[in-house]
Amino acid sequence: MENRTDSELLDSLFLIPREPVKQFLKTLLNLVYSVEVTGLENVPQTGGAVLISNHTDHLDVIVQGTAVARKVIYLGKYELFHPQETILEFLENPDSPLNKFPLSLMKQTLVTALNALGDLQGKQLMHWGGHPILRSHNVKDAKSAAAYYEDLENYIVELIGKGELISVYPEGTRTETLEPGAFKALSAKLAIRAGVPIIPSGIKGAWRMTKPEAFLTGKAFGSKVTYNIGKPIYPHEFPKEPLKKAAKMVTEELERRVRKLIEEPET
Predict the structure, then answer these.
(1) Hey, which bits of the chain come out as E strands?
(2) Helices 107-128 and 18-32 meet at what angle, rounded to 10?
(3) How would you classify the pairing of strands 224-229 and 198-204?
(4) Per residue in 21-58, is it b (16+ CB within 10 Å) or e — as a string?
(5) Rounded to 10 degrees, what is the CA torsion of 62, 172, 229, 193?
(6) What is the distance between the alpha carbons of residues 82 and 118, in angstroms, rounded to a whole number?
(7) Contact 139, 151 (CB under 8 A)
């Protein structure tokens, strides 16, 4: 039997397993919306791969994560994995009420509790498939940012090489309109470097469907959300060009395929 540290044993007691949460979210999703998924057979059952999609709403992650049978690794904002840090910054401010007697007596207890809860949330998200990344404004200077993103890219390539399925939204952020934004080349670059398939997919009908007004007006209930997964581009199909040029060419093809998938599934 594999030896486990006290920390790992403690985590196993408190961390919620992924599968029950996935099934709960899938049931809830289908109670609220009318979700249709096509092309699941295009996701490899095993082995490393990059799954890309247009990004319209927070709902995209839930639709994608509950549709695909495999565990999907998602890149998320650092703040989601360390929610306590914003509050701790306030507590450390000299003007904070907790720095004045008698509230200062409970400050250390509160800091300890916040760190414990934040650490648990971070571990839980990673247990479900999340991975924190910094945004450029969180890195002190351009040189540090370049080094950080190089290390992050290498780490993701390593994860894919170990057989993980990574989800990347090539637009880099949620679109403000129904039209997809321009795709960045990172996802194609990752797939080419790792030598794994890259799978285009498109989501339609999710735009603004988690906004309060969608529920207050009743628009969300029964709204059709379609998630179409297209045929992968396999490593042997990648252009035999230098990495930067090859990634640009693959990205252009992915953008074309995703736009088509939003209109209708591949046949």
Answers:
(1) 34-38, 49-53, 72-77, 130-133, 165-168, 198-204, 224-229
(2) 80
(3) antiparallel
(4) ebeeebeebeebbebebbbeebbbeeebbbbbbbbbbe
(5) -120
(6) 5
(7) no
Please calculate the CA angle 261-130-71 and round it to the nearest 5 degrees: 60
| Spatial contact of 89 and 124, defined as CB atoms under 8 Å apart | no
- Return the DSSP state at 92: H
Beta strands 49-53 and 198-204, pairing class: parallel
From first to last of its 267 residues, what are the pLDDT tens digits of the chain?
445 554 554 555 667 777 877 888 889 888 888 999 999 999 999 999 999 999 888 888 889 988 998 888 887 777 766 666 777 777 777 777 767 777 676 777 777 777 777 676 666 666 666 677 765 555 667 777 778 778 888 888 988 998 999 998 888 766 666 677 788 899 999 999 999 999 999 999 877 778 888 888 888 888 899 999 999 999 999 999 999 999 999 999 999 999 999 886 555
183 SS3 class: coil
Q: Which two tokens stand for residue 68?
A: 């695909």
Structural domains of the chain, ranges and CATH numbers in brackets: 17-77+130-263 (3.40.1130.10)
